[in-house]
Amino acid sequence: MTAPDDVESISDAEVADGYFRFLTLFHGDRAARLASEELSHFYDAVWDRAVFSADPFPMLGALIDRATDDELGQVGEGVIESMIDLPQHWPGLEERCRLEPRWRAALRCVCADADLVARMPPVLRETLTHDPWEFVDLTGLPEDGEHEEAEEHGQRGRRGKRKDRAPQRRRRTRGR
To answer: Is residue 108, in this structure, part of any structural domain at all?
Structure first.
């Protein structure tokens, strides 16, 4: 597949799908990385539409809608992180974070300067200043017994504490 002459004619949904195919190949073995070059125009189109355009939200929406739960982190730490320092995008990001859990999950993967975050609207500030080890539950509150499997595998619970370890007692030492 070669790059289309007019990448602007491709829909945001098609660009998002191509972007995730590109990332999958790009993070694969050597042969897959070489094959990813055929899809690199999708990567470029995402950056043109989401980072460098006046209205990035149609492209970001297509990415977030099509991303798996694991890929949401890639959207946050890549595309959104690259545009988070532009205050003109904060109202749109705040609105979407307030309404949609998947947007909040993507934004939790953004690393931003503390001084920048302090100037952001409250919803963004709260989303970006969280415990990085906190468990992000995209489906809402779990029903009884749903976290037992995660606990068996040592995954983190709601407050980010390891569930497979017993609390450790601190030993007091005098004069040492």
So the answer is: no
